[in-house]
Description:
Elements: E1 2-11, E2 14-24, E3 29-33, H1 40-48, E4 55-60, E5 63-67, E6 70-71, E7 79-82, H2 94-100, H3 107-116, H4 132-144, E8 150-154, H5 162-179, E9 182-187, H6 190-196, E10 199-204, E11 207-212, H7 214-219, H8 224-229, E12 234-241, E13 244-247, E14 250-253, E15 265-271, E16 287-293, E17 296-302, E18 308-314
Parallel strand pairs: 3-9, 3-10, 7-8, 8-9
Antiparallel strand pairs: 1-2, 1-4, 4-5, 5-6, 10-11, 12-13, 12-15, 13-14, 16-17, 17-18
Amino acid sequence: MLRLDSIHFAYDQAPVLRDVSFTAEPGAITCLVGPSGCGKSTVLRLAAGLLPVQQGEIHIDDRLCGAAGVHVAPERRSVGLVFQEGALFPHLTVLDNVRFGVRGGNDARVDELLELTDLASLAGRYPHELSGGQRQRVALARALAPAPRVLLFDEPYANLDQALRRELRNEARRLVADLDTVAVFVTHDSDDVTALADTVVAMYEGGIVQTGSPRDVFDHPVHASVARMFGQAQHVAARKEGDVIETPFGNWPADCLAVPVAASGPLNLLVRPDGMVLTADPDGLPVGELRFAGADDLVVVRGARDTLALVRLGRPH
């Protein structure tokens, strides 16, 4: 496993990480998520050994790899890295890029990896002759070449189209499970999380705000940044008075809140389009435009003080 215990880190005295702790298990994908600048990539660099640990500890299996005064070099950590841009050698063929990562020039291992990642027919091509998805497959094969215990993905699919992303996500899940590898996947894309993650570690401003399954963090977000990441959450200014939430869209019962609020006073609600229901009411709120949203439509509802909200409206099939 990969275990981080109470990691703190700063660049030039500016704190970047504070008390980051989590464990990534073998055969599963742990997605490290959060807005840009929250510290996700710094966590990955520390785990890979590209940065020294200033405070806390990093273990791979039972081996201490990083702590204050302890730094195991990246090439001695049994860690594979897959970057957003692939970072392939442009002057080497697919075969030689993968062979670069194989210890002892084991050609049987190279052939196995090319078959595993569906690259055998492309072995003689150079990176500039490949599509974006093919280059990412080569990067993955090269990362797998030394049979690492831990695979670290730094937003590898960010520049690919949606259909290709889906295909590569499925391949990543299959490979991680089949090889029983520890995998940590950094992303800020909610689709990556729901398609890939066994465990979600949500970060905000250098700390971990929630850990759980994708369903846990989607259905029961405990922090505004987590709610904003999933389900198109929108802000609604409101006020709590007793057991009633007063909103521009009418009064709602206080027990509708995912996180209970005891005191009365102003609130800033985050409401998903599928968290509200349209009902026929001749004295109700005016309905604006209808927006196409794939399998559903989004209806724009105008509340008091010209407040707008999107409500998801399922379409019959």
